[in-house]
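In this supplementary section we document a worked example of the pipeline. Step one takes a protein sequence of length 539 as its only input; no multiple sequence alignment statistics are reported here. Step two produces a three-dimensional model, which step three serialises into structure tokens for compact storage. The input and output of this example are shown verbatim.
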Amino acid sequence: MWSLKVGYSALASSRIYWTRINSLSTDLVYFSVCAASPEEIPVIRVPRSTQNRIENVKQTRGRNNINTSKAGKLLIQSRNASLNQSAGYTHGKFDEPTLCSKGWKHKKSFGDYFTVNNIKSVAPFVFGSGQEEDIKKPVKTFHKLHISKELVETLERLNITHPTTVQLQTIPKVMRGHNILCAAETGSGKTLSYLLPIVHKLHVDNEIHEEGSPKIHAAVVVPSRELAEQVASVSRSLCAPLGMVTRTIGGGRGVGHIKGVFKQGVPDILVATPGALVKALRRRYLDLSHLSFLVVDEADTMFDPSFANMLEDILRHTEIASVPDETQGPVRKAQLLVVGATFPCGVGDVLNQVTDLGSMVVIKSKMLHFLMPHVKQTFLKQEHGGGAGGDAVLVFCNKASTVNWLGYSLEEMGVPHARLQGEMPAVVRAGIFHNFQKGTVNVLLCTDVASRGLDTSRVRLVVNYDFPESHTDYIHRAGRVGRAGGCEGGEVLSFVTHPWDVELVQKIELAARRRTTLPGMESEIREPRPVTVETEELR
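The serialised model returned by step three reads:
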């Protein structure tokens, strides 16, 4: 075959002409130089795929090179400055932005990183942050929410003076007797949004227990022992000045412990894990027939298949009101308050068995499932996990074995830390998170047992040593910083190692660039499908 140089020089000495032959039956395009004799015809072959790529480059040149980085603060800050995106620029719905993490499945991407900067200094759920447009007359203090004077004074002693957005929306509805479905971002103050009206109404109604009666008036069901202790601690702070009692029961301590709790007397408010509450009901240590309030906290976990059967059992022991009028009078029924960040698809089927689903008031935060604009989030592509440091740090791992292994490594480096994971015995787990909250230790290695609902107000840095397995887990982990009443300037650092991690990161980056919610997150309660003959036979 002639080289291009030889073929070109032959033009000067021969009568030749160029032809282009497009063959539909082959992937090659032939460029032929035809001389006077057929033996002298040189052929240069160019693959069709190469030619198509050149055509595509010509068509898209200038179209993809949109300058998304302008003067002002950066939303996306990358190692490659050409991929930066200003806070003032938003991609359209059908735009396909070039992602910093586009090539992160390749081994050469190790060491690459990008940051989603915090573009706001105040959390969107804090009063005065500009997110209360849907509330016509914003309330600045708890006084005007008709909370009792004693409770307001207690809040002031705790340095809580302004209600968050979710509290402004939820408290009045609970006070009027409605069943509530509340979906709001982590750290937005959901615990107080249901505890305040419950404590207030129990105090005002002056609920008095009969001597020796196992009947209680308010129950809060949560997925973990640590969360139960935390909610109970908040409840005790509110109840103490009013002479009311809060107690907890949790799994892992045996039936004897549960029985001992009720021997001390029936509490005004009981905070329990579902397994412990079911055990107490089956042994008739308590009675839910006179319940005024049933709270299901962390609904996305509580309606998970691992808890759903126990939760259904609890609901069957409770008379749930269908309308607010049924929560009044001597023969009242219980208000149902379901609180969480997402609602799994089976929630409607379960709730429809105990109440009128259509009458429940749905309260949904405007920033639900968005990346929090006041929390800086950095993603680092690397081959192996790194270390963590700082004032108060949560380091998340996907497995208990990784928590232990990382703990041994920190011990060798002389870094004080604590570990918290689900395989630990209850006696060992007890107090670990409480000590971290008090500041006894500043680094806590943990699994997702510490990602749901726990108060981490002193945490400034969350490290995803293992990248979470879902967007839901990422939102809950990232929600450990930037909480209402917590430290400002919280950050999240995520180590990205595996190809499946990259796919999640790319979806997070795309949502950040487009200013949209993370994909695949549920926040709506769907009406259950009508029961057919076939489905009835399967029950």
